[in-house]
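A favour, since you know our structure tokens better than I do. Would you make up a two-line entry for one protein for me to read? Write everything out right here, beneath this request.
=====
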Amino acid sequence: MPTISKEDYLKSIYTLNLQDDKAVSTSNLAAKLEISNAAISEMSKKLYDLGLISYEKYKGVELTKEGKRIALKILRRHRLWELFMIKVLNLNWDEVHDEAEKLEHHTSDFLIDKIDEYLGFPEFDPHGAPIPSKDGVLPEMPKLIPLNNCEIGRKYQVLRVVDSPSELISYLGRIGMNIHSNIEVVEKLSFDNSIIVMLDNVNHSLSEKVVDKIFVKEIEED
């Protein structure tokens, strides 16, 4: 059974690979996990020997079929715990990520399947991320647009927010932005890549760091 550090490593490879659709560089992994390049190289060798990743020097790492299975299993636990804490324990969406990071490593398949059943077999977590089924199958995702690619004057619905760091989620909660919030792009500022959006008739300026973590779909006008 993989240790916590191995699980986090596999999960990070999976999520980074989704972002770039290519092998993940060791430097990107080191930045995401906040560890040294030397530690990444050492862990890469261990996971390669276990048959969980493939690795080519100067090209990066990719998950094998077994590595992907484990990564999806950990993501399933994480996302179901987040939803459970919000739906059942009434925690705020900025309070659940760090707790789910701990619980994802110490939950049996039996318990997570019971949580899944109790919640009605949900397909998406509180931040709009897909929840893998117990068989590792992901639900069909709607086609999403990065907020920084949206057009001025058009209206959109927020459907996905990357749930890290928690300070970002806390800020969005304070201005009233959640999953399924409707917004209108008012202005895009090229000098710093920030965007001004209207939410509930109030304008809010979102920095580039915030904008990069929000994904939406266009609202069709009648």
Remarks:
- The beta strands are 53-56, 60-63, 145-146, 155-161, 182-189, 194-199, 202-206, 214-218.
- The longest helix spans residues 65-87.
- The chain has a mean pLDDT of 90.
- The chain has eight helices and eight strands.
